[in-house]
Amino acid sequence: MTASEKKCQEELVALKKEFEEFVYIVSHDIKTPMRAISNLTTWIEEDLGTNADKDILDNFRLLKNRVERLEKMMNALLELSRINSSEMELYEVNIPKLVNDCIKMLADKSNVEFHFTYHLKNENTVTLGKKLQKVLFNLLDNAVRFHDKEKKNVFIEIIENETDYEIKVSDDGPGIPEEVRDKIFSIFYTVNSKDIVDSTGAGLAITNKIIKLAGGVFQYTPAVNNGSVFKFNWPKQ
Q1: Closest C-alpha among 132, 130, 213, 139 to residue 171
Q2: How many angstroms separate the CA atoms of 186 and 189, rounded?
Q3: Between β-strands 228-235 and 164-171, what pairing exists: parallel, antiparallel or unpaired?
Q4: Where among 30, 64, 81 does a domain terminate?
Q5: Which is it for strands 112-119 and 152-160: parallel, antiparallel or unpaired?
Q6: Rounded to an integer, what distance in angstroms lies between the CA atom of residue 40 and that of residue 34?
Q7: Which of these, 127, 126, 202, 219, lies nearest to 167 by C-alpha position?
Q8: Among candidate residues 48, 81, 114, the one where a domain is terminated
Q9: pTM above 0.85, yes or no
Q10: Among the four residues 62, 122, 171, 221, which has the most C-beta atoms within 10 Å?
Q11: What is the mean pLDDT of residues 43-47?
């Protein structure tokens, strides 16, 4: 490595550190006034009582909803900035159990049928357990949250290879329009309006960064009959 390349690398590391510190400070400092706005709104609602004008109460609820959404977005930005430095412990996990644990964590599993396909030489593996759990949860949550049918089908397939695992999470939902597929890994981007589906739009961006950190590749393809297929490889440690 030349002196010029070494200098550029050192500057890049310094810039990344500066960015992470900036995001942390901004996220932390903004949370306090956001909570104050939410609390003040609640107090004013209580002072007005139940006889207050319905439009006023609706506006207060909308205000609190927007503050809550902003706080979730700040939390997501903070999480994205700290991916390289947090939850980096290697430990043994049981892969089918990890998938089941992620499903249990989902907020709404009503009318969802999960289909499992495992081709594993050994169900247990030593890996970045928290990171893999976050990736699987995000993809399962995404498949359920954005599904548009009354009965939802979600498919999980995991194949163990010599050096990695091929993991695929797919569904029979609405899929992603071709014209916006290049945007889905961008932070805060959502196909649907955030007023229609409650989402920060950060899940896929966080997932993509974690997979890159682990040394894998993440890709989206449309399913044969609409729906979405998210596929990635997770290298063995």
Answers
A1: 139
A2: 6
A3: antiparallel
A4: 81
A5: parallel
A6: 10
A7: 219
A8: 81
A9: no
A10: 171
A11: 84
